[in-house]
Give the backbone structure.
Amino acid sequence: MTKPTLLILAAGMGSRYGGLKQIDPVGPNGETIIDYSIYDALRAGFGKLVFVIRHDFDQAFKEAVGARFEKRVPVEYVYQELNKLPPGFSVPAGRAKPWGTTHAILQAENVIREPFAAINADDFYGQQAYQVLARHLTSGTPDYAMVGFILRNTLSEHGTVARGVSRVDGNDYLTSIVEMLKIEPDGKGARNTEADGKITKLTGDEAVSMNFWGFTPAVFGQLRTQFTEFLKKSGREEKSECYIPATVGELVTAGQAKVKVLRTNDSWFGVTYREDRPRVVESIRKLIAHGDYPEKLWQMPIAA
């Protein structure tokens, strides 16, 4: 049985956080969130790592993160850069923002030949999430998958967050997903404020994407087509991004993909803002005290 690959999206600029949060330690012995993600993935049965990074922090990332795993598991690096565009397109003057997570995943097209998971580098998803997705990816199904989290459990007290707000049918398949970019707590629920000031009220119980996806290699051709369409529409803008939740939502609506929504009882936490970091550190400390992780993460054997 072919082991699935873990694709880690680590090329983000970290503008809201104010630094290279992908290599910021949060564990008691200098572990990063990426360390915990990979630890969970390896014990769930993943067999290869692919990092999406940028050339400008290539050496620092490899020394701080990649070198830790290269003797444990096959590791590859691919690069997300603004000028990596399909023929006929160019970077508009003044653009500095990356092209988004759809573009990031596309960078791995030439190095992934097996079912794979795609995750954010700065999100802690919990070990159960990797286990349920690994079972899906090794089941032989052509269906894609999304690990769904409850919106209220994914908000930040320190600013707005972007989430893929989802609708799911009675068989746990995704029927639609809307990328909302400025969600914040609002009483017992939440609200999203659009660029034009329109406010959408949310209950807080909605299933949301935290960019924990399961795909087969067939997705790359679909993403290439969707990204090209995005560039035709928005490729001259300075800040528009092609987000993977919106891209997957378009594939589902068009009947070109089926996406199983997998449930997890684990808590999600992440570091969108620097002020989020103390909560992450404390949450990991509690998980270690509970016995979910060893205190010295990489000095212990990984039990699958």
User: Anything to note?
Assistant: The longest strand covers residues 174-186. DSSP finds seven helices and 13 strands in the chain. Residues 74 and 106 are 20 Å apart (CA to CA). The mean pLDDT is 90.
